[in-house]
Amino acid sequence: MSDIIRLLPDSVANQIAAGEVIQRPASVIKELVENAVDAGASSISIIIKDAGRTLIQVVDNGSGMSDTDARMAFERHATSKIKNADDLFALRTMGFRGEALASIAAIAQIDLRTMLRGASLGTRLLINGSKVESQEPEACVAGTNIMVKNLFFNVPARRKFLKKDSVEMSNIMREFERLALVNTEIEFTLIHNDVTVQQLRRGNLKQRIVELFGKGIDKQIIPINAEVSFVKLSGFVSLPEHARRRNSLQYFFVNGRNMRHPYFHKAVVSCYEHLIAPDVQPNYFINFEVDPATIDVNIHPTKHEIKFEDEKVIWQVLVAAIREALGKFNAVPGIDFDTEGSPEIPTFAPNVRGEHGIDIDPKYNPFTNERGHQSSKPGSMGRNDHHKLVQDWEKLYQNFSANGESQPGNTAGSEEFTVDSVLNQVSSEIDTMGDKFDAIPGIDTAMTTTGVLQIANRYILAPCSEGVMVIDRRRAHIRVLYERFLSLAREHRLSSQHILFPETITLSPADNVVLTSLCPTLTPLGFELSYQGNNKWSIYSAPAELGNVNVAESILSIIALAGETGNEPGDKLYEQLALSMARTAATNSHYNMSDIEAEQLLSDLFSLSTPTYTPDGMTIIATIPLEELSRRL
Q1: Which residues on neighbouring strands pair with residue 529, listed in sequence order?
Q2: Which residue among 54, 249, 503, 569 has its CA within the 20 to 30 Å range from the CA of 155?
Q3: What are the beta bridge partners of residue 542?
Q4: Do residues 221 and 209 touch, judged by C-beta distance below 8 A?
Q5: How far apart are CA 263 and CA 258, in angstroms?
Q6: Alpha carbons within 13 A on the beta-carbon side of 175
Q7: Checking DSSP bridges between strand 536-543 and strand 496-506, what pairing results, if any?
Q8: Per-residue pLDDT tens digits for 293-333
Q9: Who contacts 59 (Cβ-Cβ below 8 Å, separation ≥6)?
Q10: Are the C-beta atoms of residues 235 and 224 closer than 8 Å to each other?
Q11: What pLDDT is attached to residue 568?
Q12: CB count, 10 Å around CB of 599?
């Protein structure tokens, strides 16, 4: 049998590497800008056309390259950043793997002009799908000017999976934000289709944050600083009242490099426990400075994931720094011991008559059931008042158990909640109403419109022929609202309701791009928005079907969904909008739904063709069989 293992050609190997390193135009910008940073550039311009499909051009004033280096830079695993394996543990540059330029050249057309500082002549290099077409001397300025044209021109399957321009542009903006935040000493310019989108000056981190996200954020963030032998922390976190339900600004940097770190994110969030609602997130911009030998950045080709040697110890330093900052800026509630200006409370003097002439009857006992006589003294209590007070005290204490402890979740007059008590109640309902059930389309069960039981404002229990149905109340509501909104959206029958006091939202540059592209679709659905400049929008009208729902939250939810999926208006955008609106408008555990409303919700749910799952595949209904009830009881 002949040998079957062979080496892949360089062109094929480079395309395989491109699948890991270059997922979209934003990936190309990341790699090229990081090369410019490593070259010592103090000014970087990014010029793109058609959200990077047609052209991505990065111009820098860095060190430039010789003609030989320019040619070698596009060879696989060719790099100037490291010389041996030991250098991997002392990295201070952004790139080092030697894969980026080779990967980009494999799936695009390259036009490179570069010249060393102090040289009189540069070089121009043309590459087409990894194949060098020409290299000639060229008169150009010091630094590097690289153009990447027709991305994925030779990989049509990859090009087909690119999202629409607004979504790809949003991804570019997010990558641009990360690069700009971590390189505050560099001037950045971003131009899209001949329009200057961003122009950032050199400055410190706070100035860069304000330039990117607006002046309003200046008063929303507070500084954090901490330094120990193994780590130095600096940056900013948001005050609790400015935490966001969606589109939080959350950035970690280490040694001038962006990173994602779920463990440290959890540390930040833990500092806001009891200060913010569970469904909101704080903003943060936190920089870690550590010895390069204590981190590993060579985990993934994109270098976003980084492993720390002392994660648990750094967690403690991070938590202490944030809590100190929150306490210093009075973000954590405390006890106010300042008595200046507070009313004076007189000391108790039993023999002194009160200032307002109130008499105290020493024989009066509000806890007895004896019937007293009407007193003529001011402040005394008559017979009817006395009897009412006794009844009020009885109501107050009837929710307490025999040992004097209140039962959580109970209301006055309700029995103690246990699993067995619920199963007993449901079993009783099954026995008394089992002959009234009707078949439900789509599931092999039956239900009644009476006798539902709500638990913890989250679940609805209803008897069925097989046992007990447990319905997730919020998911059921999402399903019902989704179908309603979807039908109205497709027919453009969502009625518009004017907002008395227009709401204003400030977006990140990336989200601003998405909302701009969505406006033509949102207008016929009942939304009226106006751009105010500086990424600010005013909302004047919204679909009346949203009711009292926060309109700004609904818009942010729509932006998030559109940014994730990037579907065209004629494809699945209506489904996105309907799901976003349904999620925003659906009830949560804070809402006390009446039994009548719960019964109507079930009736609406089971009138649908698919009542068992939410539009995004979450289970709505679970059934507890009769056998399980019998076993437990």
Answers
A1: 539
A2: 569
A3: 497
A4: yes
A5: 15
A6: 24
A7: antiparallel
A8: 888 765 555 556 788 888 899 999 999 999 999 998 875 55
A9: 44, 45, 47, 143, 144, 145
A10: yes
A11: 53
A12: 17
Give the single-character DSSP code of 373: P
- Is residue 571 classed as helix, strand or coil in its secondary structure? coil
pTM, rounded to two decimals: 0.65
Sheet holding 122-128, edge to edge: 131-138, 122-128, 109-115, 143-149, 55-60, 43-49, 187-192, 195-200
Tokens representing 562 are: 């559109």
* 627 exposure class (CB count in 10 Å sphere: 0-12, 13-18, 19+): exposed
- Nearest one of 239, 264, 247, 183 to 213, comparing CA atoms: 247
49-65 as b/e: b if 16+ CB within 10 A: eebbbebbbbbbbbbbb
Are 46 and 33 a contacting pair, CB within 8 Å?
Answer: yes
Output the pLDDT for position 621: 92
Q: Count of CB atoms within 10 A of residue 371's CB? A: 9
| Residue 425 Cα to chain centre, angstroms | 41
CA distance 164 to 319: 41
Comparing C-alpha atoms, which of 255, 230, 220 is closest to residue 315? 230
What's the chain's length in residues? 633
Q: Which two tokens stand for residue 579?
A: 């799901």
Half-sphere exposure (Cβ direction) of 315: Cα atoms closer than 13 Å = 14
Q: Return d(Cα 279, Cα 244) in angstroms, integer.
A: 9
The answer to whether the CB of 554 falls within 8 A of the CB of 580 is yes
Contact 545, 553 (CB under 8 A): no
Q: What are phi and psi of 20, to 5 degrees?
A: -90, -40
3-state secondary structure 69-100: HHHHCCCCCCCCCCCCHHHHHHCCCCCCCCCH
* CA pair distance 91, 80, nearest whole angstrom: 12
pLDDT attached to residue 411: 37
**DSSP conformation letters of 207-244:** HHHHHHH-GGGGGTEEEEEEE-SS-EEEEEEE-GGG-B
Which stretches in the chain have pLDDT values below 50?
Answer: 82, 87-88, 91, 95-96, 334-342, 345, 347-348, 352, 354-356, 370-381, 383, 385-386, 388-390, 392-419, 422, 429-450
280 and 228 Cβ atoms separated by less than 8 Å: no
Q: Which residues contact 368 (CB under 8 A, 6 or more apart)?
A: 390
pLDDT of residue 103: 86
Angle between helices 165-182 and 509-522 (to 10 degrees): 160
**Single-letter amino acid code for the residue at 621:** I
DSSP 50: G
- Of the candidates 52, 166, 164, 47, the residue with the CA atom closest to the CA atom of residue 108: 52
